[in-house]
From TrEMBL, chain A:
Origin organism lineage: Bacteria, Pseudomonadati, Pseudomonadota, Alphaproteobacteria, Hyphomicrobiales
Record keywords, A-Z: Periplasm, Signal, Sugar transport, Transport
GO MF annotations, alphabetized: maltose binding
Protein name: Multiple sugar transport system substrate-binding protein
Swiss-Prot/TrEMBL GO biological process terms: maltodextrin transmembrane transport; maltose transport
Region (Disordered): 395-417
Source organism of this protein record: Rhizobium wenxiniae
Signal is among the record's keywords: yes
Domain of life: Bacteria
Short name of one Pfam family: SBP_bac_8
TrEMBL record, chain B:
Membrane protein topology class: Multi-pass membrane protein
InterPro entries: ABC_transporter_permease, MetI-like, MetI-like_sf
Pfam family, one: BPD_transp_1
Protein name listed in UniProt: Multiple sugar transport system permease protein
Superkingdom, natural source: Bacteria
GO cellular component: plasma membrane
Organism this protein belongs to: Rhizobium wenxiniae
Cellular compartments annotated: Cell membrane
Length: 417, 317
């Protein structure tokens, strides 16, 4: 008798378990490992699950270096993620590989996307389909060390606003030893950091040129403007001696150590710099040129839906992606990761714009450009080599620029499907 | 005794009577062979699946334009033609051989010298030997980062600080296209030194002391003993180390990658070895077919170099 009760209980237990399992849809979310991003996503998932008790989201992460390979391999094996994070620059490859499906227009109508998001989301559009939407975006700004500004007799509350002021401030801050080595840099020079983006999307435009034409498939910087932009950059080391490539290994390390007056870096550096205890630092917009022209480089990781997701998983994925692109998710992301909301309404609030740190980055978003890289690593390397040829091998900026332009055009052409 | 055990084990298999019948008719030798191969089958199978199959697959891949996302298309020797026309490849090729041709003899010379003298040191012998061996135990990545900081320009680079102290002009080291490769090679030699010293010392210890005693009685000098007895008798050890360290230098990666992470193989590709180029082609540009072609070239180089060394250093009869 007792046995049969026990058995009945067990059966009942199993069936409710099975019933629940059938009710709850589980979807997988993939992103790469970066401490604050994973933590923010944990929070978002917990919040989403309380609002949608019938959906469970499983977060899966991989080291950044393996991430793309994992996504591609999993897709081939047919067990890829339902919702995944991807860098905007990977889109061509992911679309060509059939990894993503176009965002369903019932949940994500185009007019709404184009009205609500910053214009840089157009980088996620191919053939009239959007393939992903960002939670957060990142832009560049100048970080400056207020202590070094004061020591050099500069007003720490009036950071430079034009390129001339930028150079003048850097010259005042820079210090050298008897042998001419930089001991304190006025501004860091680090093409391997964000300087290549600064040169490509900002300086070239400010000297009157354009980095690319035809949807970034034709290299256009082999021009007088390109030469002027490159000369401006290399002269910071060769003539003005405000810094040196490789000083303290990396630009961000030099700034962190309090040995650099200014450094150009992105929103993603806020987390690392927030632990600086030795000095106060501030943020200001990237300097304008003489005519007041400003530019910026913005980039982002978007979230897309896997090509093989269908049925109730697809419905759940749509709900999850809608949540990820909601103002409340963006607020959590901003707080935890420090990246700016991708929705205009969530980003351009009075509080955010007045914020001394987020403000300059947000202003930058309004006039930012997004390079449509075809081979991100290759194109970055090409710009690094261009500057190294001038600084290390004494090649003339004109020749180095010409060589870089030709090499990059070849790279872009080779990447065409 | 051993065979008794084997037979016992074979006969003792549960339900093995029917199967054991023909087995009983097999000779002892055959049975033993069966057992040996039975056990060997596991590693052989393992190697076939995870080593040999991918190796042959790489040969096939090198003839395709596979880019991971689209299905592979057969392109014949196009990847090889592209590779041999690529100036970047020849630069990398030269770098790889510089690591090999300078790195291997230099590291062996230093290792032998250290081993030769350390063999005679009695005072704190084990401690000194441990000190030499320590770098070999350290993670290459951690070591490379320490050296990376040593090589920094002023004001933080330790080596440049020392140079300044003794009045030598500062050197750019890994920021120079001329010095970077050698700066990295030094760290690789240093890292592998401990292992080579230990192997050389084992080789030295294996030479019977009677040979030395006889030589001394005959009145041979130290130099002659070294040339006529120590070096010839050390030949098997030397051959092993030459091949071993050549392969290590041909496959150098960790040191280079970690010392130049922001501009891998830089500046201007002056430190880039073949393995790093393969890595970048495969996992940076996702040109898997092209990367496979580079892998096949590396495989061929390794094969030729190893066979050549074995042939040059072979036992002359």
């Amino acid at each position: 008798m007792r046995k049969s009760v026990l058995l009945a209980g067990l059966v009942a237990g199993f069936s409710t378990f099975a019933f629940n399992a059938a009710q709850a849809v589980e979807i997988e979310y993939w992103q790469y490992v970066f401490d604050t991003r994973v933590k923010a996503m944990d929070q978002l998932i917990a919040d989403f699950q309380t609002k949608n008790p019938d959906i469970t989201v499983k977060q899966v992460t991989f080291p950044y270096a393996d991430y793309q390979t994992r996504v591609i391999a999993a897709n081939m094996a047919g067990n890829g993620p339902d919702v995944m994070q991807l860098f905007y620059g990977w889109l061509d490859k992911f679309v060509a590989g059939g990894i993503l499906q176009p965002l369903p227009t019932d949940a994500f109508p185009h007019e709404k996307i184009e009205k609500d998001f910053f214009p840089i989301v157009s980088a996620m559009k191919r053939d009239d389909n959007y393939y992903g939407l960002p939670t957060a975006v990142r832009s560049l700004a100048v970080f400056y060390n207020k202590k070094l500004f004061t020591e050099a007799g500069l007003d720490p509350n009036k950071p430079p606003q034009t390129l001339d002021e930028f150079v003048a401030a850097a010259e005042k801050i820079a210090k050298h030893d008897a042998a001419g080595n930089v001991t304190v840099a006025g501004s860091t020079l680090d093409m391997t950091g964000q300087d290549h983006q600064w040169w490509r999307e900002v300086l070239i435009r400010q000297f009157g040129g354009e980095p690319y034409t035809d949807n970034d498939t034709k290299v256009a910087y082999n021009s007088e403007a390109g030469v002027q932009a490159l000369k401006f950059y290399t002269s910071l080391q060769t003539e003005k001696k405000v810094g040196a490539v490789g000083f303290m290994d990396e630009g961000q390390a030099a700034f962190r150590a309090g040995k650099a007056g200014m450094t150009i870096d992105g929103t993603f550096r806020l987390g690392a710099f927030s632990t600086i205890k030795d000095f106060e630092w501030g943020v200001t917009e990237l300097p304008a040129n003489k005519d007041g022209l400003r530019s910026n480089y913005a980039s982002y990781f978007a979230n897309g839906i896997g090509a093989k997701t269908t049925g109730e998983e697809l419905e759940a994925s749509k709900k999850f992606l809608t949540y990820l692109t909601s103002p409340e998710a963006m607020a959590i992301w901003l707080k935890v990761v420090g990246e700016l909301p991708a929705l205009r309404s969530a980003a351009l609030t009075d509080a955010n714009l007045k914020d001394p740190i987020y403000g300059p980055f947000l202003k930058g978003l309004d006039y930012a450009h997004t390079t449509m890289f075809k081979d991100e690593l290759g194109q970055r390397q090409n710009a690094i080599d261009m500057v190294n040829r001038v600084l290390l091998e004494g090649q003339s900026p004109e020749d180095s620029l010409k060589q870089a332009a030709e090499a990059e055009q070849e790279m872009i052409d080779a990447a065409k499907p | 005794m051993e065979s008794d055990n084997l037979r016992g084990a074979a006969g003792g298999r549960p339900g093995g009577t029917a199967a054991a019948m023909p087995a009983d008719r097999l000779s002892m030798r055959t049975k033993r062979l069966l057992w040996v191969w039975g056990f060997l089958a596991i590693p052989v199978l393992f190697y076939t699946v995870i080593r040999f199959y991918p190796t042959f697959q790489a040969f096939y891949l090198s003839m395709t334009n596979w880019d991971l996302v689209r299905p592979a298309k057969f392109v014949g020797f196009a990847n090889y033609v592209k590779l041999f026309k690529d100036p970047q490849f020849w630069k990398v090729f030269r770098n790889t051989f510089t690591y090999l041709i300078i790195g291997t003899p230099l590291s062996l010379l230093i290792a032998f010298t250290v081993a030769f003298f350390l063999d005679r040191v009695r005072f704190m012998h084990n401690f000194i030997r441990a000190l030499y061996f320590l770098p070999y135990l350290t993670t290459a990545a951690a070591m490379a980062w320490v050296w990376r900081w040593f090589y920094q320009p002023p004001p933080i680079g330790v080596i440049n600080d020392v140079l300044a102290l003794i009045g030598i002009p500062q050197q750019p080291f890994i920021r120079s296209t001329d010095q970077a490769l050698f700066s990295i090679m030094v760290t690789a030699i240093w890292a592998g030194l401990g292992f080579q010293v230990i192997i050389f010392m084992a080789g030295l210890r294996a030479i019977p002391t009677t040979f030395y005693e006889a030589a001394r009685i005959d009145g041979l000098g130290e130099w002659a003993i070294l040339r006529k007895i120590t070096l010839p008798l050390l030949k098997p050890t030397t051959v092993f180390l030459v091949v071993f360290s050549s392969i290590a230098f041909l496959r150098i990666f960790d040191q280079v990658y970690n010392m130049t992470t922001n501009d891998p193989g830089g500046p201007l590709g002056s430190t880039k070895p073949l393995v790093l180029m393969i890595y970048q082609t495969a996992f940076g540009s996702y040109a898997m077919g092209y990367a496979a072609a580079q892998t096949v070239v590396l495989f061929t180089i390794l094969l030729i170099v190893s066979l050549l060394q074995l042939w040059i250093l072979r036992e002359k009869k």
